[in-house]
């Protein structure tokens, strides 16, 4: 390997280092908070400043967080969750732009992002032979991972708006629906021996519309079915909760994946 190639590699993910957290209760808590926070923050920003400016700022912040994540040698809570929060904010904006700016119906945008998500999954699977998050240890695999995360956020945002507005379910009925749906992969994995990779990504996708429904239900005006707390207030409270959780994870390192044994790695790869 020449010095130029080595220099490039040194600025990206360290090969062999695990790049994402272990899936624990804390993971799902912070993931849920980040989806709700992204929804509330996005809606707040596009109301207090020109929407094009908000979208550009959201993209720049997301890109900056992702660059820092890739430049970090291995998983650390602050860099990883900063990138997730960046996806949450910008992913919401990306989905909303299709509907608000371009007039694309939520039905079409939900379908479009679903196709995009499945395309990313198919390419990832074909290229890397696995979709397991326990195998995110190279720059290319991490790139597939974040492309998937962006697609899940965009699709989840459109899907939440689809149930709330197109189906006229409102925020809290949508919340109840997605709360039931997210229990399906949990039950399937725990008692029905579902494939763990399938169960994980199914739950991961559903956390987005679930979180968005929570944020909208709390923040939106009473006239449209919300509690009227305000998007800014909801975003601030959720941000503080995320900071507290990530600080806890940074100190305890409770979600740092350990190097798997050979036997455990074979089970994970076959999953």
Automatic annotation (TrEMBL):
The chain crosses the membrane at residues 44-68, 80-100, 106-124, 144-165, 171-191, 198-215, 227-249. The keyword Aminoacyl-tRNA synthetase does not apply. InterPro entries: DUF347. Keywords: Membrane, Transmembrane, Transmembrane helix. Pfam families: DUF347. This is Membrane-anchored protein. It comes from Streptomyces silvisoli.
């Amino acid at each position: 390997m020449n010095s130029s190639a080595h220099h490039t590699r040194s600025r990206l993910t360290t090969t062999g280092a695990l790049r994402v957290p272990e899936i624990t209760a804390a993971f799902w808590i912070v993931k849920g908070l980040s989806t709700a926070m992204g929804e509330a923050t996005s809606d707040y920003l596009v109301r207090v400043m020109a929407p094009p400016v908000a979208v550009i700022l959201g993209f720049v912040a997301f890109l900056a967080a992702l660059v820092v994540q890739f430049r970090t040698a291995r998983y650390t809570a602050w860099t990883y969750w900063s990138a997730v929060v960046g996806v949450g904010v910008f992913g919401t904006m990306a989905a909303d732009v299709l509907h608000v700016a371009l007039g694309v119906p939520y039905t079409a945008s939900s379908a479009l992002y679903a196709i995009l998500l499945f395309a990313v999954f198919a390419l990832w699977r074909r290229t890397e032979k696995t979709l397991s998050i326990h195998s995110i240890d190279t720059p290319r695999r991490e790139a597939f991972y974040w492309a998937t995360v962006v697609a899940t956020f965009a699709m989840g945002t459109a899907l939440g708006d689809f149930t709330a507005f197109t189906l006229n379910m409102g925020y809290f009925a949508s919340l109840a629906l997605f709360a039931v749906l997210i229990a399906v992969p949990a039950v399937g994995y725990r008692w029905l021996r579902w494939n763990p990779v399938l169960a994980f990504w199914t739950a991961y996708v559903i956390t987005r519309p679930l979180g968005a429904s929570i944020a909208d239900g709390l923040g939106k005006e009473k006239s449209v079915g919300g509690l009227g707390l305000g998007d800014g207030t909801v975003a601030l409270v959720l941000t503080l909760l995320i900071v507290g959780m990530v600080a806890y994870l940074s100190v305890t390192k409770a979600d740092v994946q350990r190097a798997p044994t050979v036997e455990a790695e074979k089970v994970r790869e076959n999953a």
